[in-house]
Amino acid sequence: MFAYIVRRVFVGLIMLIVMSLVTFLLFFAMPIDPARYACGKNCSPERIEQTRKALGYDKPTVVQWADFLKGVAVGRDYPDDPKLREAAPQLVTHCAAPCFGYSVFNNKSVNQEIADTLPVSASIALVAIILWLLGGILFGVLAAVTKGSLIDRGIVALSLVLYAFPTFFIGTLLIRYVSIKWGLFPFPAYARIEDAGVLVWLRQLLLPAITLAVFYMAAYVRMTRAFVLESMSEDYVRTARAKGLKGRTVLFKHSLRAALTPLVTMAGLDIAQVVGGAIIAESVFNYNGLGKLAVTAYTTLDLPTLIGLVLLLGAFFIIANIVVDILYAFIDPRVRVV
């Protein structure tokens, strides 16, 4: 088991390094001058050239990538040009490891931008994940065990309707009716748990979390139902029933456990995607999370922030796949020999 985990972690590290190189090549292949956008409007050619040296854009792309990896490992100082650092030591900014770059637009490191916005996205994602996993698996199992009944048809029909609604539509409905018209919840505004407490923090997160959870829950209901029905038709389940095991034991110990394998794959990728930034939900509720930061960086062509966010989101997916592989090994021991 330990050797299996080491192999998966090693492959994940190789994937992270390759992903960072591909990301650099793609972004710097764009027909734009990042130094010009970083300098701002009405910049003179001399000022643009100074900005290019300060941010290291005058170096070849592969060298910039190597400097980036070095910054991730041991940290980095800005301006990037040693001559500029010697001429103005009071303007030197140190970006501690792991350093993802420096944003001229916000005058702070990408690390600080991520540190400011990641708790918001992670909080929304945490509540949404709990809601959609509990609701999706519970109603999916209920639909499976009542196959063909009115309950089954009602759950499937409702999940199809909810899955068809776009996220921004659900969020707008919740704000207009649940928050403003009916007053069941205060108008959504993120509150830090250390400042407002757990209850206020959770209450302010429920509406955006429900907005995300409804969409994913609808998909998980249908998938859980399908996987459970498929596993219930297997020979080993019929054998367990023939031995006289209780229906509850057969369902949870045999059928549901077999259905967890594909659900774990779905959950791992979906969790990584939501933590990486629910752009639409954060925009509807005006929450300053990773998704909103990504939109702002794209509109201003803040290249260091964009690269940092892309790599962070890619790292989430790779780590999620590693976790899923490890969970596979616990759910199905046959996976360990692969």
Q: Structural class, judged by helices and strands? A: mainly alpha
Order of helices and strands: HHHHEHEEEHHHHHHHHHH
Strand order of the largest sheet: 1-2
Described by the principal axes of the CA atoms, the overall outline is globular
How many angstroms does the end-to-end distance come to?
Answer: 11 Å
Biggest β-sheet description: 2 strands, antiparallel
Give start-end ranges of low-pLDDT stretches: none
Helical proportion? Answer: over 70%
CATH topology of the domain at 112-300: MetI-like fold
Number of helices: 15
What is the CATH domain class of the domain at 112-300? Mainly Alpha
Instruction: Bin the strand percentage.
Output: under 5%
CATH homologous superfamily assignment of the domain at 112-300: MetI-like
Mean pLDDT: 83
- Beta strand count: 4
The radius of gyration is 25 Å
Can you walk me through this structure?
The protein has 338 residues and is mainly alpha-helical. It has a domain of 189 residues: MetI-like (MetI-like fold, Orthogonal Bundle), CATH 1.10.3720. Helix content is 75%, strand content 3%. It has 15 helices and four strands. A two-stranded antiparallel sheet has the order 1-2. A two-stranded antiparallel sheet has the order 3-4. The chain is globular, with a radius of gyration of 25 Å.
